[in-house]
Design a protein that fits this description.
208 residues, alpha+beta, Aminopeptidase, seven-stranded mixed beta sheet, 7 helices, globular, disordered C terminus
Amino acid sequence: MNSPPTIRTASVTDAATVAYVVATAFHSLDVCQWLIPDPRERAARLSDYFRIITDHAFRQGTVHVTTDLNAVAVWLSCPFPDPAGYDTRLAAACGPWTARFQNLDEQMYQAHPHDRGPHDYLAFLAVMPSAQGKGLGSALVEHHHAGLDRQRRPAYLEASNARSRKLYDRAGYRDCAPPLDLPYQGESLFPMWREPARQSSPHADRAS
């Protein structure tokens, strides 16, 4: 049996590595293939795109990593302001594909349950391909959920495919809106919401 991974809160010095892990793990997702069809351009540009959100999370959320930096979770505390200089940074990162990223942003914004009050948003959960299948992603999610449950705070995310949707379903997430309507053939993004789990009372097992 594999021992549980050691998890720490990332610092800004980890930002480039976190963005690289997300870009590497997400490279083959259907949505990313649509965003930047050319594989070499995708590999060259995705890190810069994910770095925009990662940098924002260090100011407006939390970033957790396994100590070997093979797995990362990027959380934003909602509501949050737009990243500073977002349009300029997006255009610089995405070049001729910027309009597709803007389309994605709009669809994600429309699906996001802004009316449900403060919550945490899991922007990215990513595991390096060589480290997948070892429970690192689940460990990162459970680590953050423990704090959310103590605070009685809900969470939101978009599952990137059917496989991750099942993982999040096991973690307590439920579909909360139709899949994103984006113009590509492949697996959709599924908006999902999680209510905090009930905390057991320390006196629950005592006889009344």
